[in-house]
Known about the structure:
Blueprint: E1 2-3, E2 13-14, E3 27-30, E4 33-36, E5 38-43, E6 55-60, E7 63-68, H1 80-86, E8 87-92, H2 115-151, H3 153-160, H4 167-181, H5 186-189, H6 192-220, H7 226-261, H8 269-278, H9 294-311, E9 330-334, E10 337-343, E11 349-350, H10 352-370, H11 375-380, E12 383-389, E13 392-393, H12 397-406, E14 413-416, H13 418-445
Parallel strand pairs: 6-8, 10-12, 11-13, 12-14
Antiparallel strand pairs: 1-2, 3-4, 5-8, 6-7, 9-10
Amino acid sequence: MKPKSKPDxxxxxxxxxxxxxxxxxxxxxxxxxxYPIKGWVAYSKKPYKDELMAGVRIYCxxxxxAQTHIFNLRAxxxxxxxxxxxxxxxxxxxxxxxxxxxxxxxxxxILWSHPLGRAFEGWGQSVVKxxxxxxxxxxxxxxxxxxxxxxxxxKKIEKAFPxxxxxxxxxxxxxxxxxxxxxxREEELNDEAQADRIVQLAxxxxxHITLDAKLREAAxxxxxxxxxxxxxxxxxxxxxxxxxxxxxxxxxxxxxTVEKLKDDEKTLEEAFQKLIESAPWLIEPxxxxxxxxxxxxxxxxxxxxxxxxKTGQELVLGDFSDDSKRADFVMSNQGGIVQIIEIxxxxxxxxxxxxxxxxxxxxxMREFLQAKGQEPFRKLFQDVHVTLVCDKLALTGIHDTAxxxxxxxxxxxxxxxxxxxxxxxxxxxxxxxxxxxxxxSIEVKD
Length: 446
């Protein structure tokens, strides 16, 4: 804001184009007197990270009296998200030290609690709200321009959905990307990783939003043509491929992370046990995390009691809620089989006593399932199987023979080292990605 060259008795507020702003005055009235204010307030092109630089400086007779960011405005106003860091200005109020001295003795702030101070505060809040309102759209446009340059969104959308009959998907994807990016901070959008996350989210949602629109359009028409139905099916196919492709891509990235972690000597097997609990597909690509299955949760608790009664030792399983207790193994439920997943740290060699413990798990779980009164469990869980991830074996004598028997084809135990474990999972999901890409190519040709 800047005062008019020849202001009237009430003063006027002008915008950057020199036009009068209705509803604002270059000052305010209080107790029958008009208190004039001169200066300017603006929305900066770039945020001020240093609080000493941001905000509006208030001067009285050429000396600094206070600095305020938003005139004590409460949260919830339009434009609040950015204006705290972008608002700058310099105003002069020479009446601050007249009959009522509103300047604190340390000249660090104003006595806002004073009636005149509250009136001044109210004027300032009106200015802040106005700037927040008018700066919103330009800010969004600037954010979108930044995002376009950093992300190269147009080319990526064209590459993902190049077919002529995918025009509506391209449009929806662009709208989603713009909706997200235009509301983000510019400094965030200048981060390529952050910009790419927005791109990937838009590419994932674009086909689904388009499918929803096509279904609504078909529902509103009394007689949907065959061409429309064909378009819906084609869009649904693209949406399905994008969704599954994103899942597979995320899993491949998880596997890459695990491959790095396993070579870190500080990484303990507990970390992988926790990971397996939420991502059992690392062991077997077809496995899914266990949902709130009351029957399985009950089995796990009852088996812990059974194990302690038989061995006198406490068996730690569960959701790893107590970090002070190291879990003995991960127990899962896949295809009606109780899966025991034993994770050893990379480079570890399995010893005789550890095999004894694994064998005890198998024996006692079978005894538990076959015990009298366990019919409800037996209907849901027919058997038990162990998956052992361990790089080496240090077994001797009868233990070596027992291990070979357990791990024979279709036996009770599946053994794999870390390299095989990760390679198999990565290849499965990479194959899925390759197939998804092949299907997309077919869609383009159609």
